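Changelog-adjacent note: as of this version, every example in the card shows the full chain rather than a window. The one below runs 219 residues end to end.
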Amino acid sequence: MKLAFWLLLASNLVLLAITQLGGTASANDPQVLPEYHPELIRLLKPEPVSAPVQAATAVPISVCQDWGEFSGTELIRAEKLLAASFPAERWSKHFVERANGFWVYIPPQSSPTMLLKRSAELKMSGINDFYSVKEDGPLFGAISLGAFKRREGGEKLLARLQAKGVSDAKLEPYLTRNTYAAFTVRELTEAESSNLKQRFPASHLQVTACTSPTESPKP
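Full-length structure tokens:
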């Protein structure tokens, strides 16, 4: 009876060992690899690769300089120098209206009779330092009361005149038109700027906005 018991126990142990050895097989054992199903395989299309974004090309900013101011023979010399040194598209000439001073005046009277009457009224107010404009032009018949280099001087005279009852007097700058000229030169190098200053020491260079030339340069 004991022998039968031990034989049955031994057979059970052997069966248990075989079962456990089969369950702990390595995952690399070809017998336990997952079943291969080629019909289930789907090839993925590669994602399109975006073209690299190129950095925007910087647009060069043109730099211009005003060179001046010139008149008379100096203007002729400066223009000849530019024509000999630079292509025509790099420079242009423009005229400058320069305020040479300030003028206190009474606007033109409507007739010679009114001019005489207004002059008499000024003298009655104690104002004797004036003269009437006799040159033909838009200011013919005006009464000049004084000219000043600085605006402050004109403002003081205007205040004195108004205190005496002269309410029609005006203060305005007077201009010399087309007397001075300047040149706008594009993309000057340091060497070119230095050469212009050496040739014309009294001139000045100032950075300015580049614009289309309004007048074609004349060699």
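Structural remarks: Confidence is low (pLDDT under 50) at residues 24-33, 214-219.
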